[in-house]
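Board notes (copied after class):
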Amino acid sequence: MSNNLPCLRHLKIICLISLTVFCDSCTKNSQSNTAYYYWKQNFKLNAAQTELLEKTGNNKLYIRFFDIKWNTKTKLPYPEAIVNFQTTTPGRHITPVIFITNQTFEKLSPAGIDSLVRNSNQLLEQLARKNHIVYQAIQIDCDWTLSTKATYFSFLKQLRTISKKKLEATIRLHQIKYQFKTGVPPVDRGTLMFYNMGKLSADPKTPNSIYNTKDAAAYIGTLNQYLLPLDVALPVFSWSLQIRSGKIIQVYAKIGVAELENKMRYKPTVNENVYEAIDNFFTAGVYVKTGDLFKLEESTPQLLQQAAQQLSTHLNTDTTRTIIYYELGNLNLSAFKAKDFQEISARF
């Protein structure tokens, strides 16, 4: 028996080396790129935004070119909030985004699809040509439903044909969970919008509605079975819920932690991220009454690290995906640094 001990030791070493090599080969095969949405109507980058885009985003932007809404008077779809480029885009990789209301497809007749496709593509080409933008793909943002699926999918098929571009579509969490009911859009790629997953609530103990692990877990169990390659959109915004007499009065993106930590106007409550007004006043055009509560819901680097960790374990790992942050135009650059985006995207 003792003569076999050296052989056993060598065998253990060989097994450990083999296991190490095997584990290394089991690391994710996916690669992630970073990009940003730009949603403001006036496209104008300042120096800090430009620097962040160059450092972390490979100069890749998803710019909202226009919205399409339904005109109840003319009973026709019409474009709104058409982008105005105040900053040129040389060297940038631009994907135009068109936001379309679900109501448009509720009201649109099958006969109207063709003209909507042609008009949308024509306006897109005009804006791109005027601003010297060359694009390879188009993204459509629409929260379709069962009743609008057929019309919306028909629109996508025709747009894909007439534009001769790759087509992308945004995907909400409920459309992932119930994909066999809501359908999978006929596009080349989807972008999973991994935010706004909870309910807005006046209850100060209700979790962050922008992102929380419990609500997210209810939707992503079958994510790796989704029938499209997916990019991911993550939130870099915050808002405050103004609460009076136990009811939400309004949601304000402009009232953030800097305002709520003003001790001349607010005091913290026993609930985390909930503040109480101690006087009557106006701020950012908002009337605040003594006793009003403000529930702050934030996206922070730490929260997005948690979101990335949770989501990445459910995604297919055999693809290159883009992590798109929403959105650059209103990004608080004192809360997020370049290294935050690099570290979060690297988790995918």
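Comment from the instructor: Residues 5-25 form the longest helix (21 residues). Residues 239-297 form one domain.
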